[in-house]
Amino acid sequence: MIGLRNAARLALPARLARSLPRPARRRIIRARIGAGYYDRLDRFFGLGGDPLLGTTLWTAIDHVLERPAAGAFEALSPLAADETSFGRDVVKALCLIDRSGLEAAIDRFAALGADGRHGPFERMCARCWGMFLTLHQPGETDITDRSAAFPIIQYWNDPQAPSDVEVLMTKWQGLGTVGYHRFDDARAEQMLERAFGAGRIFRRAEHPAIRADLFRLGYLAAHDGCYIDADAVPARTARSSLARLSTGDATLGFSTAQMFLHPQNECLIAPAGHPLAIACFDEACRRIGQGGYSVQALAGGHMMADVMLDLHHRGRLGDVRVMTQRWRQDNVFTQPDLGYKSDDRNWRRWDSKRSVG
Predict the structure, then answer these.
(1) Which is nearest to 97 in space by CA: 131, 70, 122?
(2) Is the pTM of this model over 0.90?
(3) What pLDDT score was predicted for residue 187?
């Protein structure tokens, strides 16, 4: 009977398995990869509360990227069986780190970035994986003179934010080692007009999220700063982490807990005039002026991916440090679902309606 049950669990498609209650999902996964193997992964990666195949895999990869361990990618590879073709290709490329070294993995991602079997977005993400592996992450050697820390910068389009957002912004105001600056639409437009003559472009941005994306890039192109999204809950170590990251490097996060890797701009830290901030601001202005892009592709993470990949290819990216999702959540902030995200102030909802229309 046990053999028949395990056979049924092995045969059940992942799409259906994900709709089952959590205990049933865990039993299916244990049957597929072996109880002992699953328990070892559970102990090593701390995945006991998340038994979904796909989520488990990418959460664990995020962990390994932050804390490399010999053979870890190979150990995770059985979890990729139910992934898409692109997801399996990403895992195979990461496994090359264990088998043949980092350069082999980078070369494989370069090949995936030109593989016509995958769409344009997947190819861009493959190139981002390769670029990510060449960049360094925060480490203990990054500790600097805290008196040189950059000010914290935040934006909300209206002078008064919703109450749940206001509470969080107030917390960040108390964490700025050398200052805190808050901008609304009027102040952001003034700053961009004064520094770059870009007030008109700012006004053309249709949604507050687009204006926030443009403003943060323009501010960092002109000034030192740590830009933090308004909906962020500071981690216990946020103050010291930001001080450590206030260096000559630009620092940003990547979406390392999913196969579709690209830059994330919820936290951007850079000295004034960093080439990445300048190039991204220039390209965002061009795209907003031209129109016809999604929110992410106008001035957000997908636009930043295009710019970073181009600068990286030409050797002009400058010094850049990248945060995994896990490192950013543990050391800088997390982002809860706040009330405004249930209406069109949530750029994802707004962008989806615009795309359908």
Answers:
(1) 70
(2) no
(3) 98
